[in-house]
Amino acid sequence: MAPAITDGFHLVVDALKLNGLDTIYGVAGIPITDLARLAQAEGMRYFGFRHEQSAGYAAAIAGYLTRKPGICLTVSAPGFLNGMVALANATTNGFPMIQISGSSDRAIVDLQQGDYEELDQMNAAKPYAKAAFRVNRAEDIGIGIARAIRAALSGRPGGVYLDLTADVLAATIDSRAASESLVQVVDPAPPRIPSPESIERALKLLAAAERPLIILGKGAAYAQADSDLRAWIETTGIPYLPMSMAKGLLPDDHPQSAAAARSFALSQADVVMLIGARLNWLLAHGKGSQWNERVRFVQIDIEPTEMDSNRPIAAPIVADIGSAMRCLLDAARPGRIKPNREWLEQIASRKRQNIERMQARLSANPDPMNFYSALRAIRDVLAGRPDIYVVNEGANTLDFGRNIIDMYEPRKRLDSGTWGVMGIGMGYAIGAATASGKPVVAIEGDSAFGFSGMEIETICRYGLPIVVAVFNNGGIYRGDDANRSGGSEPSPTTLMKNARYDKLIEAFGGAGYHASDTESLGKALTDALASGRPALINCVIDPTAGTESGHIQNLNPKSSLSDSKQRGDAG
Predict the structure, then answer these.
(1) What's the pTM?
(2) Is residue 87 over pLDDT 50?
(3) CATH code for position 29
(4) Mean of the pLDDT values across residues 383-408?
(5) Does residue 265 sit in helix, strand or coil?
(6) 373 with 513, same domain?
(7) Range of the domain at 21
(8) CA atoms of 100 and 344, how far apart (whole Å)
(9) CA distances to 195, 283, 286, 494 from 289, in Å
(10) Which of 64, 141, 232, 526 has its CA 20 to 30 A from that of 388?
(11) Do residues 93 and 218 lie in contact, with contact meaning Cβ atoms separated by under 8 Å?
(12) Which residues pair with 369 in a beta bridge?
């Protein structure tokens, strides 16, 4: 009797299932089509996309939400490269993700003899991934997947690339040997306990502070140490600022939130505690006019090399956030840390002023809608639905949305994050819907939507409860720009005027809505959520609404020549 055999395709599926990974996002094609079919036949969920980049974004955000690596499956060479953008974004943001790609014959690739979709994918991936591995023998598939899982989850999470050659996938192996080659990963992200000295150093610095401030980053949200984080903030009484994806760790209407007085708090704080937040461009690198020049920092981060990356860290705590918070709570006796009362009153006063100013803008009802009025209409509908995930991208759509849409539960706001990339919208929405089973509202600028808009077919194909609201002002930033030459061709930042994005989803069986005022927008969103069907709302926004580059105009260099001058006559 001939021995039972299996092949590389089955080994990959068996290894993923053994480690509790039951969902794949991808685009089928050579040489991984049968891998996708087999995964589905073996009980895994497979979501097929129209573009690998969106599949990768879905995998990455699923990894962030579940703390298990999201799996993205791509074809070789061009498909691999499409997925790499999402993998690099996952690494930058600290999301656990594994991109698995089929690849061409190694012998031909290494001699550059011109194989089908020839590319040295593993070495191409290395600069953009936390780790990259290639499997050249079927008996190493189990260990390769185990290494990828551990690399994606341990320390600061990130994106991992796993290269599976066509030969390895098709290779046969004795079933018993194959079974013995599989690896079940044990404790891939063990706790990193902080040193007692680092805890005491931090407590002393915070106790001596007159104007302390806590900044919560998305690393704090990823840690899922929600109750301990809340206990720490409420026990110490320290005001806090949530970064965008940390909104909802405590509800946005919490009395200690200083979000409405962000600029004032940053400019006056004498000790800032960073919890899962990095001093990168989103915080002006901890330098400049928005910061108190004498501020001192406490920082909790699992990555030791993050300390002192931009500013000296007076009290570094190298640990996972859950362990650090438990140690801080255990060591801080009641009343040891007590912010100055005047500091708290100053923040409260500045909050009241800014909230009143914002309320005046939100109360206006211009025709056509602007970002304030349209987002107010969405906010009012979402206020009673804290279970809904909100995906937000664009320039002005993102910046205004961050400040207007309140969050009440953790990990419910998903946006472009550390890299500030465009195109995450539909991938994140699909990943959140499939990982959670909850409804998703994706609030998109019209330019941002264009990067992944074809994925509305994917949303409709799988019948996902996703409502897309496209803020249509007819342009990148705004829709009233003119061709500087006086010619008839559109300007570089102009999109098609009077576009009807709602008609796109109707072509795939979804529900399309056209909203030109706040009343129709609120009703459309309410009806769409009640239906549970895929839907898209075309929100008509004033073409003159919006500013160049949103809130980061300073990062967009301008020509030193005025609009009226050409290079030839500028002298």
Answers:
(1) 0.95
(2) yes
(3) 3.40.50.970
(4) 96
(5) helix
(6) yes
(7) 5-181
(8) 50
(9) 34, 11, 10, 34
(10) 232
(11) yes
(12) 541
